[in-house]
Amino acid sequence: MSMTRERINIPVEKLKWMYETMVKSRYYEDVMVEAYNEGKKPVFNIGAGPVPGEMHLSTGQEPAAVGICAHLTKDDTVTSPHRPHHHAIAKGVDLNRMTAEIFGKVTGLGKGKGGHMHLFDPEVKFSCGGIIAAGIPHAVGAALAAKKKGKDWVAVAFVGEGAANAGGFHESLNLAALWKLPLIVVVEDNAYGISVPKSGSTAVASNDLRAAAYGIEGAYVRNNDPIEMYLASEEAVRRARNGEGPTIIEIETHRYLGHFQGDPEMYRDKEEVPNLRKIDPITKIRDLMLSEGIATEEETAQIEVRAKKDVDDAYHFARESEYPAPEDALKDVFSS
Q: Taking every annotated instance into account, which residue ranges of this chain make up the domain Dehydrogenase E1 component (predicted)?
């Protein structure tokens, strides 16, 4: 049965924004794959090319970001782990400066000093809190600040399912529950913590079940569904803004690429990714808009062109920007 507009219950402009943002995120990762691999073949050399170091891409995980960021404002805080691009794009981080930062250019968010895993944009209250569960305490701090100031701001911490086994996850949620803070922890269950399957590392079937241990709400979103993620997030944000405390949302999402670029992925069945791509969330939301008359083929094509142009413009901005001068290496790092 196709979903009716009543059952969707999402404003048309929000739905179109979700689609455009998902297209933009996916295309961004496609562009970054090409940029990252430049100079690293035929033998993979992590230090070569215009983007050296590790690169963690979020292709396939777009619903986690758009589903909740559709409900956020500029005043809400988002923290992200080391797979951050879809979160940053959905939160409205400056795409030109973000891309320049990844390329290590002086026009970047951190003037080229942070790179891909340390994106920070105070204009929209976005930061990469580091790997594993390191971003959750930062989000708790933002949520505490909101409560102390009497604001209805929300703090969202994105983590992978492996981070739910880390101390920072439990310590942070205990405090947030105790103080009824406006915190939402979004657990992106992409099935693997690096190369360890969830079944080999986690004692519960889904991490939303852990919410009961803190006396807070939990929700589980199946099948990487952007519509269900939107609806679960809507309720969680409502509770947070009303002073009703934290929520854990776990979404069953799909990492199409390896843990990092260059990952041989020996832990995955060779048919896993092709099978996941058959239910691609971007195709799902596009087909939904078309079948319900929310958008025409021409409109969706225009959305795609606009999204890809933003990415292309950011890429060219980054490539054409200058690298920091050697003598500026310690500027804005240490105070005198």
A: 53-326
Place of tokens 């003598």: 327
What is the distance between the alpha carbons of residues 47 and 273, in angstroms, rounded to a whole number? 27
Domain presence at residue 203: yes
> For residue 84, what is the DSSP state?
-
d(CA 312, CA 314): 5
Q: What is the pLDDT of residues 26-77, one digit of tens each?
A: 999 999 999 999 999 888 899 999 999 999 999 999 999 999 999 999 999 9
* Residue labelled with tokens 């992590």: 46
Give a yes or no: residue 334 inside a domain: no
Q: Which pLDDT score is estimated for 131?
A: 79
pLDDT (mean) for 83-94: 98
| CATH number for position 65 | 3.40.50.970
CB 15 within 8 A of CB 8: yes
Confidence of residue 335 (pLDDT cuts 50, 70, 90): low
- Look up residue 289 and give its amino acid: M
Which pair of tokens denotes residue 115?
A: 């790179």
Nearest residue to 156 (alpha-carbon basis) of 225, 63, 236, 251: 236
Instruction: Please determine, for residue 336, whether its predicted confidence score (pLDDT) is greater than 50.
Output: no
Q: How confident is the model at residue 4, as a pLDDT?
A: 46
Neighbours of 162 (CB within 10 A): 23
Domains in the chain: how many in total?
1
Cβ within 8 Å of residue 86, ≥6 positions away: 25, 29, 58, 61, 62, 64, 65, 66
Query: Treating both helix axes as pointing N-terminal to C-terminal, what angle do 297-320 and 95-102 enclose, rounded to 10 degrees?
Result: 50
pLDDT of 189 strictly over 50: yes
Question: Would 330 be classed as within a structural domain?
Answer: no
Residue 333 lies in a domain: no
